[in-house]
TrEMBL record, chain A:
Subcellular location: Cell membrane
Parts of the chain that traverse the membrane: 7-25, 73-95, 107-128, 158-178, 220-239, 274-295
Alphabetized UniProt keyword annotations: Cell membrane, Membrane, Transmembrane, Transmembrane helix, Transport
GO cellular component, as recorded: plasma membrane
InterPro entries (UniProt xref): MetI-like, MetI-like_sf, UgpAE/MalFG_permease
Family: Belongs to the binding-protein-dependent transport system permease family.
GO BP annotations listed: transmembrane transport
Protein name: Sugar ABC transporter permease
Organism annotation: Cohnella endophytica
UniProt membrane topology term: Multi-pass membrane protein
Any Pfam family hit: BPD_transp_1
SUPFAM superfamilies: MetI-like
Domain ABC transmembrane type-1: from-to ranges: 69-291
UniProtKB/TrEMBL annotation, chain B:
Coiled coil: none
UniProt keyword list: Signal
InterPro entries membership: Bact_solute-bd_prot1, SBP
Sequence ranges of Low complexity compositional bias: 31-57
Family matches, as PANTHER family: ARABINOSE-BINDING PROTEIN-RELATED (PTHR43649), DIACETYLCHITOBIOSE BINDING PROTEIN DASA (PTHR43649:SF12)
Transport among keywords: no
Start and end residues of each stretch annotated as Disordered: 28-57
The protein, known as: Extracellular solute-binding protein
Pfam families in the record: SBP_bac_1 (PF01547)
Keyword Signal found: yes
């Protein structure tokens, strides 16, 4: 039975209204807010002061904000390489019929079940601590005093320390998606390849990778969104240190204040925070589109 | 089957996690409860409640009725909340017809309060930093001048105004006009704090130091004595790096100068000889090993734990420090404190007269429907008994005059007596916004860890300041 077009519209209406109300309206309002100077999040529209593109100009001229953009690109690139290298490795190992697959998979996924705040405290206060931290103790035990004396959270090291700590917690999530993707590839291909005498490397590069292209593209977009909204780790690792600040955390500082200490007075500009939000959205859209260009959708996939 | 096992494994894992979290919390709650219970019982002694009800019966308070809502900045697990609960209980005994609702918001109050007030929710009394509250909530605050003339509770016939430390009240009053309000009192200060050097008296004694340093020269001499005795002199955490820069420059030049330094668009102010002197002195502290090597990577609260554990002798912080690290330091820790030593060659606007101090405040809603009952409750909250409860249970400085200060802060009283000028947090060094966080503090860390020479520090700061402000 063919449905009348108006009936289709009627059935779609609730979903469309909800979508417009909870997604499109806030986005448009944020876009509008980015052109105003707004003293507090709860300010009435009458208190907004129109400033045009000044918020954006200030951001471009602020070395602190520009630094935060460089930081996030580094996180995206370095963290991405780290995470995908390990996620692929584990996903392939887990699909190669090792014993206790479920146990290992749960173990690798485990950090994802812990709150990021808890994980970062563990890394900061227990792993990287320079007097009794894990790294210091282990290196001391091994007699590697030069390595043991490194302060993992000083100006020079904190950025990479943060990326390592964050990547540790994120590998499991991407591994799970890749793992599911690999499991969907029919075993026949591997059996045929094995009969022909292909090495594990050949099988990975000639069978797994090409057939995973679509899954990989999706995880890459997911990673881009995660990386561009990098927030909690920046907040817990650096407070407002320029070495670890990211646009998302900068946005938070502008909207909710610098925090850290209840005794600091400060001036907010919610409008400036909104313009950071708009820039993050734009960057995510552009990079996602580029990824779509680089990995066009293919019919041959599982 | 497969699915079931997976589900089981995930349930098991999450249960284990939840359990560890819950047991972790449970322990700390238990210890807090057991710590406070013995001290709670003597405070409800008959004499105290008798005096409270006696003073209440003099005023027409007992006729009060209605509902009073109080939003607190503490969370219900903090020791301050227990003191507030007791004050509310005393209030209820004297005013049985008033219904009191206390909401313990914790520091989230800073985000929740304004929307709540603007939506017209009933909040009669709230706690806030007075400076921040007057600037952002000026349409909601009640002028308290008339109410302050009422009799205070438990202060032998003094008015509320006379029962509070005068310098704090003066400070609160001075905030009104700059915020755009009519001159007057809009907040009652409480929980006063000051930024001071805190030190471990046992370690000072071990190094043979008999008096606290007052000048930079004495400070260096004491650092040397500590070092000779094998004790690490100074440490700080990433969260308080600003205090060290601000402390030095504020002590030399006062906070107005520091404020204009970080806002100077030309960068020329950084070429002032005092900045080079600052850089040389910081390099000296680093080169002689007076700074802990760990300052480079200290993540709050790692540095203050070193003080609590007796590894380091001094830490520059607010007077809340002894309470904050009481669990690690233990009851036998001998606390001492002194003001930032006087730096030579200043402009005479710093020194001991300038102290970075402030307080939290109790404020009232202008649109409150039950002002008389609400102020009666405020009187209990700033009454002598509650304020002394804050001193004994939360190691906070009492806001009332003639109250005994908590023992770990006994020496801090000296600084409050010296103080004539209130300097802002960080002595103004944080007033540069993104320039302060993005440039001033990280460049100072390069200097303090020996990666930048004093001359290069001055040159870099001047150049960076010019560059930062050129776009504006």
């Amino acid at each position: 039975m063919r449905l009348n077009k108006s009936i289709i519209a009627l059935f779609l209406l609730p979903a469309v209204i909800i979508y417009l109300a909870i997604f499109l309206y806030p986005t448009l309002r944020t876009l509008a807010m980015s052109f105003y100077d707004i003293p507090a999040l709860s300010s009435k529209v009458a208190e907004w002061k129109y400033v045009g593109l000044v918020n954006y100009e200030d951001l471009v001229h602020s070395s602190y904000f520009v630094g935060s953009m460089k930081n996030v690109l580094g996180i995206w690139l370095i963290g991405g390489v780290l995470i995908f290298a390990f996620a692929f490795l584990y996903a392939v190992i887990l699909t190669s019929k090792v014993r206790g697959v479920h146990f290992w998979r749960s173990l690798i996924f485990l950090p994802n079940t812990v709150s990021a705040v808890v994980l970062s405290v563990v890394w900061l206060q227990y792993v990287f601590n320079s007097s009794y931290g894990l790294l210091t103790s282990v290196f001391n035990r091994l007699g590697l005093t030069a390595l043991a004396n490194i302060q993992w959270t000083d100006n020079e090291h904190i950025y990479f320390s943060m990326i390592i700590a964050f990547s540790f917690g994120s590998i499991g999530y991407f591994m799970l998606i890749l793992n599911a993707g690999i499991n969907r590839i029919p075993g026949d291909y591997y059996e045929a390849a094995t009969l022909e005498g292909a090495s594990p490397w050949t099988k990975f590069f000639r069978i797994t990778l090409p057939l995973l292209r679509d899954v990989f593209r999706t995880t890459l977009v997911l990673w881009t969104i995660t990386a561009f909204n990098f927030f909690v780790w920046s907040a817990t690792f650096g407070l407002d240190d320029p070495h670890t600040v990211t646009p998302a955390f900068y946005m938070y500082q502008k909207v909710f204040g610098k925090g850290g200490n209840v005794y600091v007075e400060e001036a907010f500009n919610v409008g400036s925070g909104a313009s950071v939000g708009i820039l993050i959205t734009l960057a995510t859209l552009i990079v996602s589109a580029l990824i779509g260009r680089l990995f066009p959708k293919e019919r041959l996939e599982y | 089957m497969n699915m079931k096992r997976k589900a089981f494994a995930s349930v098991l894992l999450s249960t284990m996690l939840a359990l560890t979290v819950i047991t972790g919390c449970g322990k700390s709650n238990e210890s807090e409860a057991s710590m406070s219970s013995p001290s709670a019982s003597p405070s409800s002694s008959p004499s105290a409640s008798a005096s409270a009800s006696a003073s209440a019966s003099e005023s027409p308070a007992s006729e009060l009725s209605g509902k009073v809502v109080f939003w607190s900045m503490w969370s219900n697990a903090e020791p301050q909340a227990k003191v507030i609960d007791e004050a509310v209980a005393d209030f209820k005994v004297a005013n049985p017809n008033v219904e009191v609702e206390v909401k313990y918001n914790g520091r989230d109050i800073n985000k929740l309060l304004k929307p709540a007030l603007e939506s017209g929710q009933q909040i009669d009394i709230f706690e806030q930093d007075p400076g921040a509250a007057l600037s952002t909530l000026k349409d909601h605050v009640l002028k308290l001048d008339d109410l302050l003339a009422q009799q205070a509770i438990g202060s032998d016939g003094k008015t509320v105004k006379d029962s509070i430390i005068p310098s704090l009240l003066d400070w609160v009053k001075s905030l009104a006009v700059p915020a755009g309000l009519e001159d007057g009192y809009y907040a009652i200060p409480q929980q006063p704090y000051a930024v001071l050097f805190f030190y471990n008296k046992a370690l000072f004694a071990k190094a043979g130091i008999t008096a606290v340093p007052t000048s930079w020269e004495e400070f260096l001499a004491d650092c040397e004595l500590l070092k000779q005795a094998g004790i690490e002199p100074i440490t700080f955490d990433d969260a308080y790096r600003d205090l060290f820069i601000g402390g030095y420059l504020g002590s030399a030049m006062g906070s107005d100068w520091t404020d204009s330094l970080v806002k100077d668009k030309t960068g020329e102010m950084w070429k002032d000889p005092i900045v080079l002197q600052f850089a040389n002195d910081m390099q000296n502290l680093q080169a002689k090993g007076y700074f802990s090597k760990k300052i480079a990577g200290n993540k709050y609260p790692a540095g203050q734990q070193d003080l609590a554990l007796g590894k380091t002798a001094m830490y520059l912080n607010g007077t809340w420090l002894p309470n904050e690290i009481a669990a690690t330091a233990g009851p036998d820790f001998q606390w001492g404190s002194f003001q930032f030593p006087v730096v030579p060659n200043g402009n005479g606007k710093g020194g001991f007269q300038g102290l970075s101090f402030g307080a939290q405040g109790l404020l009232m809603n202008k649109n409150g429907k039950n002002v008389s009952a609400a102020f009666e409750l405020v009187k209990y909250l700033v009454g002598k008994k509650a304020q002394e409860g804050m001193a004994t249970k939360a190691l906070a400085i009492p806001a009332t005059v003639d109250s005994t200060w908590p023992a770990p802060l006994a020496e801090a009283e000296v600084a409050f007596q010296n103080a004539k000028v209130n300097m802002p947090w960080g002595f103004g060094i944080d007033n540069g916004g993104d320039f302060s966080t993005g440039t001033v503090i990280p460049t100072f860390m390069e200097l303090a860890t020996g990666k930048l020479s004093p001359d290069k520090y001055v040159a870099k700061m001047a150049e960076q300041a010019k560059k930062f402000y050129s776009g504006k």
